[in-house]
Amino acid sequence: MNNKNLIYIGGPTGVGKTAIAIHIAKNLSAEIVSCDSRQFYKEMSIGTAVPSNEEINLVKHHFIQDRSIKNPLNVGTYQKESISKINKILENNKYVILVGGSGLYANSVLFGIDKFPKVNNSTIRKLNNIYVNGGIKILQKELKIRDYESYKSIDINNHRRLIRVLSVCVETNLKYSSFLGKTKEVRKFNHQIYIISDDRNIIYNKINKRVDRMIKNGLENEAESLYKDNNSIVFETVGYKEWVSYWNGLNSKTKTIDEIKKNTRRYAKRQLTWFKKYDEALWLKPNGAANKILNNYK
Fold first, then answer.
1. In 85-100, which positions are buried (b, 16+ CB within 10 angstroms) versus exposed (e)?
2. Cα(214)–Cα(208) distance, integer angstroms
3. pLDDT by residue (tens digit) across 266-297?
4. For the domain that residue 204 is a member of, what is the CATH number?
5. C-alpha distances in angstroms, 194 versus 12, 98, 155, 184?
6. CA dist., res. 73 & res. 62, Å (int)
7. Could you give the angle at the alpha carbon of 229 between the alpha carbons of 14 and 214, nearest 5°?
8. 171 and 187 co-located in one domain
9. Are residues 31 and 101 in the same domain?
10. How many domains does the structure of the chain reveal?
């Protein structure tokens, strides 16, 4: 019987996953593997809410600010690196904790990477031309018609992501979402999924307060220091991309902060839509979640 276990702690941004994961890891003498796709990068600290130095010193963490934005980590490479790391950790440990809200990255560890049909470059060029000449709303409307499930769950304001998803729909005449969840790769460990969530107004209130803390801690300066690199990883990320309009004189600072809050709330909503597809998951409210999870491993 396989007694190696990966415990996945998922949930929307700002709900308190980090503290819960650390509490569980300490009690199980486990290490933490992050699947937050923006916490990988050492240049992005304030806007990605990485664990504090104190938290990192409590438990050994992996994939936290261990690389530069100049060498972005795609989901395929992440899967290879993280599975290798997890298997190595489990050679001497019974448990490993996976934590983070980036659904595709979590999925790559839990189930593998979904296989999509090859898309012709001409289709991508055509959609990109529509975006350049007609704006993003045309593409958003098209995706809403072709694949409402994807429309609800992806970042429809990220034009690259939107074009990628829509290109599959156009090329195959099938929904992009119909290709999700088909791959089931064999793992050397069991996994259990716990989704931390709460009433929507509580989540949104936490998000608003966290954004205010980020602003106070210097989010604008962090974003501005990265602007010269014009790196898509950074400026496709909520909390960073909104500053561009402010710097260009198109939005006030107050409006910019409101946009960050609004876009973060939208991101949390998309995350919740994604997690609902995990039929095996146990959903828990933050208060008492760590102890409830630990009770399953006594």
1. bbeebbeeeebbbbbb
2. 10
3. 999 999 999 998 999 999 999 999 999 999 99
4. 3.40.50.300
5. 12, 10, 23, 19
6. 14
7. 25
8. no
9. yes
10. 2
